[in-house]
Structure formats: C-alpha cells, structure tokens
Amino acid sequence: EVQLVESGGGLVQPGGSLRLSCAASGFTFSNSAMSWVRQAPGKGLEWVANIYNYIGNAYYADSVKGRFTISTDNAKNTLYLEMNSLNSEDTAVYYCAKFTWVTGYDYWGQGTQVTVSS
Predict the structure, then answer these.
(1) Distance separating alpha carbons of residues 25 and 88, to the nearest angstrom
(2) N or C: the chain end with fewer CB closer than 10 Å?
C-alpha cells in the first residue's frame, strides 16, 4: 500500500524558513517522480516543484524559484521541501504527490498547513 505522510508545517513569520518532509512507503521511491503541490485558502491547486528521483532533476514554479528547494533522501524514502524567504502568498496546505507520465498524480499525502504571518 502506497503511503505519503507529510510533516513540518506550521506558523512562520514573513521572511522565515520551514522544511517540509514527506515520508513515502509502498513503492520504489528511488525510481519515482514526486511533486509538491499547494492549495491556498479559497484557491485551486498550484504545482510547486517536481523532482525526478531516478535522475535527480528538479523543476520549480516561477513563484517559488530561488526560494524553495525540493530534494530527496533515498535511504530514508523521504521527500523534502526547503522553503526560504516565505511570504504571506506562500500560506497554503502543502501536499506531496507521486506521479507518472502515464497516470499523472496517482497518490497524495494528507497535506500539511503552512501559515506565514506576523
């Protein structure tokens, strides 16, 4: 059974940093493609970043490029999102998701809330 469990969300002041984690199980994590997707209050889903774990390439939305870093630890089967220079527009529920080119997003975590506020 595939499971994705996010953690690390919370309240942070503008300009602050936070690291999200997503513990993965039930599939070969090192051969996977993973994403972070967020949903701000009252808005739709917004793609944040992808990482193709089998080759290590990462891609970012323009809104987070240069501030966020997606990474993996294959020994721990864990996906990370390091978030720096946070602002109020980053307030959202952040989800990790597994995807494939054939099925798209096929598994999602439960989400973790990030609130940027003074």
Answers:
(1) 32
(2) N
